[in-house]
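Wait, can you check?
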Amino acid sequence: MTETPIGTSPARALILSGGWPGHQPHQFAALIRGMLEESGLEVTDATTLEALEDADALRDYALIVPNWTMDKLTGEQSRNLRAAVETGTGLGGFHGGMGDAFREDTDYQFMVGGQFASHPGNIRRYRVEVTALDHPVTRGLGGFEIESEQYYMHVDPSNTVLATTTFDDQVLPWIAGTVMPVAWTRPYGQGRVFYSSVGHDPREFGHSTVAELHRRGLLWAAGRLA
């Protein structure tokens, strides 16, 4: 695992925060900002979707972090975001801020590689297993237990799965034994996409493995980790 030196011209990241307040987007924005700035990126915060209306500006970012549960994108906003990623801007995020964003926009969901469907049992303790042992995002990381929403998602079979969770029979017996991707990467044109379904509450980032998984995933999407 090699982190690319930033040099005198820092890579730039855009954190787009808003939508349903239950996912505490502004608290998460502060966590993400700290994580990226500590790794040498220059961070811009946006709290309006109007930030997606300048197509040229979006292409100047190394990384865009959707932190915006539900809500809607206009056609122009969606096209601009997807075009930026397709031409090389990274896309990275987690939980509902990226995986339950813009539910009506199937083009956005195709870019992400998945979409939230349910979290049976709501907040519960479950285990995550790291399955991609040689990927730069997960190399050296072990499995862990977390108390959070265990996301059941509709996922793209072309994703490179980094970690999974297995559903038990305690809430919905008919999904017992289902192995569900938790974290994955994928290409979208020339852009890199990283997603993790962990991250319902900012306190989850107090878990060292969770924090490192997300830090590495965002840096990988930004092209700063190889």
